[in-house]
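Batch job 17 of 40 flagged for manual review because the log was empty.
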Amino acid sequence: MRFLDSHAHLADPAFDADREDVIERARAAGAAAVVVIGESLHAAGRAERLAESHPGFLFHTAGVHPHDAADFEPGRDVARIREHVERGAVAIGECGLDYHYDHSPRERQRRAFAAQLALAQETGRPVVVHTRLAEDDTRAMVVEAGRAGIRGVLHCYTGTHALAEAALAVGWYVSFSGIVTFRKFDDFALLRLVPDDRLLAESDSPYLAPVPNRGKRNEPHWVAHTVARLAEVRGTDAGHLGDLTIENAARLFGLPAALSTTSPGASR
C-alpha cells in the first residue's frame, strides 16, 4: 500500500528525540509524502526547515490555529504567512473555528479565519481547516470562500453530513484521521459520503493514533491503518484507496505529479 499523509504535526516537540527515525518509518511504510502543518508561525518556521531538509517528501503549510486567534494581528501575521507561501508553503493553515474549547474569543477566531481565507484567494493556495462545534459559521465561511474560488480541506473530519456536503458542493475536500478506526466511531455513512476524488487521509500526528496503536504517540506511517479502514467501509481495495489519497492531495496542494507514479521515497 502507498498513501499520503495530508496532515502531520512533525514540527511538534513530541518528535524532537527521534524525528528522522519517524520520517524514515513513514517512507518504509509506503508514504509518498507528508504535509507538515504549521499551525502557528513558530511551527511554520520549523515545518519549513523540515521540508527544506527532505525535498520532494515533506511539504509545509503556514497559518494560525483558532486557539491562537486572540493574538492574531492581520497586518503582521498575514504578511508573515504570505512570506511562507512565497518560499513554498503548499497551503494556508491550520486555521478555522473552534467553539468547543473557546481558547480565543469567537469574534477573533472569525476575524483570523477570514483573513487567512482572503490570503488564500490572493495567493491561490488551498486552506487547511479545523472546525469543532462551529458548524453554522464554518459552513457560511467555507461556502462563501468556495464560491469565490478558494479551495480547501476540512481536516480530521467527524462533523455533520450537512457541513461535509456543503464543503463538497463548492469543490472542497474532506480528510479522515485515525478516529475512524476507534471502536466508538460508527458514522460509516460519512466515510462513504465523500467522493473518490475528494477524499484525503491523515495522521494528525502526534495525536489520534489509530487502532491498534491508540493511546500511543501517533506517527505518519500509521496512516496505513486509517486507509485500510476507509477502504473496508467504502468496499474497495486498500491499495486503490491509498493511491487516491496521493492523487487527491497532489491535486489539492499542487504537489509534484511524479508522487503518484514513483515508488515510496523515490523523490528523496
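Reviewer: the log was empty due to a logging misconfiguration, but the result itself is present. The longest helix spans residues 106-123. Unflagging and moving on to job 18.
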